[in-house]
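Worked example

This section walks through a single chain of length 532. The input is the sequence exactly as stored; nothing has been trimmed or padded.
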Amino acid sequence: FPAVLSVTGSIESVERSNGTFIVICTSTGGRPLTMSITGPSGVVEDMMNISGRGGVEWVGNDTFSAEVIRTNGTHGDVYGCMASNGVSNASHSFSLKVAGSPTLLLVIQTSATSVIVEWSQPSGGATVTGYVVHYSHGDSKNIIITECNTTDNNTTDSNMTESDTTESNITECKKTDSNTTDSSMTQSSITNSNSTDSNITESKMTKSVPGSSTHALITNLTNCYKYTFSVEATSEHLSGMSKIFILKLGTSDLSVNVTAGAVSSTVISVQWDHLRACSPVSHLSVKFSVKYTAVFSAASEIINEIIVSSTEAMLTGLTPYTNYSITVAVVNEMGNVGPYSYPTTNLTLEDVPGPVGAVTASPSPSQVTLTWEPPLMPNGIIIAYEVSYRQTASSEPETRVNSSALATNFTTESNLEEATEFIFSVRAYTKVGPGNATSLTVATLSAESILTSMKTAVLLGIGSGAALIGIIIFGIAISWTVFKRSHRRAKRRLCTEDNPAYGVTLGVRYKPSRKIDSSPTHTQEPVYDTIR
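Given that input, the structure is written out below as tokens.
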């Protein structure tokens, strides 16, 4: 007899970037009588009627396989496999994983032979497993690529038209459903042009980076050449492609190879190279704009700028132990500012910390407990706190005690004199040294004052208890008075009749009938009270 069937399905990528994949169905338990594959559109393909590759094939033991090739799938599309051998039916469903398209933000030349490509992560789609930066160039320095042809899943670099003009340094090729508002780029819409030039020799290259990264340094480029860049986001099955970004290296004067180093806690030194343009538009007399801002701080929205004539600058008046982002651009004699360099970050050195925050004290007759807030301006890594104290009227040196680097409280030993005034000081340390101290005057308590406070608390407690009892008694009296008055009113409203058998008088309440009649009638309600 035929065995019980089991079916599994999977997806294999053929070319991730152009959206081609294979749907594979596998059954075990002998040759199936029927086998089919369903797609997201609901179409059922009978694999038994397909001859050659793609139809049901024996792959070993009692296992049979069938496959179909598909393109341009959408993330989440569901595919299914179904098989039957007359004894049992089996099915299995699975979904397609497609990464979203990353947004290519910018390409910045960092030296004569290198650029940095930066993008943002896709906002949807499958989990990104990595990124691949695609870049290529032609062999002519005068070629300007003005048009390109792309599809949803593929960027076709070969379908480009060329022009021997030098009108712009950056041309962006974009899909017709995309919008770009970057004024520094010359945009060109997609066309269906398939014209090619046999004089162009393209060199296609790639660089892979982890899925956690959003930028890549591309090196070993040729200055004055035009390059085309795109970014591919890979996933388990299919990839998402960014739009194309085109940049010609060396089209304007640039500040490249920017380096920075902290000189002190408030000064950073910056150096760079002046890379002149490949064309005759390079200016002989230039200045440089240096912009810098604090990173991840309250002052990060403040952008500072200085103009210098040489290829170095000193940034002063900075905040200690703070990261600064620095960019440099060339300014020509007409005051026009060129492209800024890719940001360089540098951390200023540590300094002594600022004063600690508010200090509070909790005294007793023989000791004092202090608490405080860390410095508002640590200016580095706090490694310790120091507490010192002495009697106000004493000329003896202070007692100094080092506290833990993490603790923001301290308790003195139990040997202080009672009813004595002390001056306490707290200061923080970095590896550079201590900051300014914050002082507080505190008097220890006397045993007599504590006893007085306890007596007062007891008396207040007794007084509070007596007042509470009085309020309760007064409330009970008021409640009893109200109850008795209402009871007497109820008795006056009752008509009674004797009941000798029980020796009691039963009270029965009557009320007029709602019935409109010439003779008054009454209706009885249940007995409410038994009055003895």
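What to look for: The two ends are 97 Å apart (CA to CA).
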